[in-house]
Amino acid sequence: MKAMLQGMGCGALPVKRRRPRCALGFTLIELLVAISLMALMAVLSWRGLDGISRAQTQLQQRADDVQTLQATLGQWGADLDAMAEQPNMPSLEWDGRSMRILRRGSASPGEGLRVVAWAQRNDGGTGQWLRWQSPELRTRGELDLAWQKAQVWAQTPSDEDRQREVRTVALDAWQIFYYRGNTWTNPLSSAASADATGTASGEAAPGATTTSTTPDGVRLVLTLSGGQALSGTLTRDWARPILGGGK
Description:
The protein has about 250 residues and is an alpha+beta fold.
């Protein structure tokens, strides 16, 4: 048979060579490229999440600032609405640095009077609007002492006085104006003094009382510090409730 094949001119049968089997997996370069892409995607995802978190924190901070300002102005109006009258004593007094208010208590029926003071103080280079409130007052002696103590607190507060104060909003400056005689005036001006005492020099006119009369309205002008949800100048007007028929 072999001879026949040779005679026919056919050579030996070709031997099949076994092909090498392809290696499974990735090369080192492919792994490095994949790891680099995954790291890049992780960084981009983290930046996106960090940006969302920062934006949410800022929005929450701004919302808190607005709520604090609203609550502070609400308390300011409530103090003025609750002003009380006492013989030979002002219900409201502004000395250019602080405002003192004699008000009725609101915690429970029959509660005694309280003295409230508002002032601006710089602590650590940052201005802060503060509110101080006395304990419940039952006697005239306690009332006079608290009235004087409120003025001292605005200038040189003691440790005890600081415990009774509440920090509200960051404030650079503030002003107060009274509405009397159909016009807004500075309470410290000579015209306002004349309205309150009867003479421009501040001396009581014959038959007049030295107690300042409560103005028909109070204008509050705040210069809010920067970095808050609201900054710049804010004006808030208050009118005596009796002027609006109790509305």
